[in-house]
Amino acid sequence: MEILQTLEAIWLARTAILDGLWNTIQISFLSILLGTILGIIVGLILTYGNRAARFAIRIYSDFLRGTPVFVLILACFYILSVVGLDLTAFQAGVFALTLFCSSHVGEIVRGALQAIPKGQTEAAKSIGLTFSKTFFSVLLPQALRQILPTWVNTATEIVKASTLLSIIGVVELLLAVQQIISRTYLSLELYFFAGFVFFIINFAIEKAGRYVERKVAIPT
Fold first, then answer.
1. What's domain 2-216's superfamily in CATH?
2. CA 190 to CA 193: how far, in whole Å?
3. Which terminus of the chain is more solvent-facing, meaning fewer CB atoms within 10 Å of its CB: N or C?
């Protein structure tokens, strides 16, 4: 009977659930994409930048990695509005998660690049390759093999962290489910449903990451 009630509640609230799911997917996709791009830049500066640039980016990275995501979301939503940058709750949430993601991806990229022998960079310079060509043709393909497993973990953490955006009023999947619970009181069943949906999203990310990892692996 409880299973039927839960299924009925989910069906009746399907529009709200799908809207929340779509918001979760958008937030996660944008944060991971933008965070990865910014993180690559952070990693490059940490590895190849001059001393002043490395120092500034090191402060940026350490500060963001040491700040709880919850606090970062609140800061991006409230503090930015105080200084005149008016962002919607959705935009502020994506901005906060992008910053958080970039700090972790930056460290992943830095570690992968530093693991590549310097002789390969010097060899690329000796045949006249520019830094951009050296990075995309020589360094990135090798670094990608080391980056992928940890990057997948970071991506799944961002998906889970998207649930915190409900504190600033973003109706993502978990908040949509909580609103249904407040009407139906089917808390255990609906929380299990929400957890299952998040598991499916993260499982898909993990499978996609493993597929790419197999594609870029060196044949043995």
1. MetI-like (1.10.3720.10)
2. 5
3. C
Structure tokens at 106: 């930056």
Q: Name the residue with tokens 């973990």.
A: 153
CA pair distance 130, 107, nearest whole angstrom: 24
Mean pLDDT of the region 195-204: 96
How is the chain split into domains, by residue range?
2-216
Q: Which residues of 170-188 are buried (b: 16+ CB within 10 A; e: fewer)?
A: bbbbbbbbbbbbeebebee
pTM here is 0.92
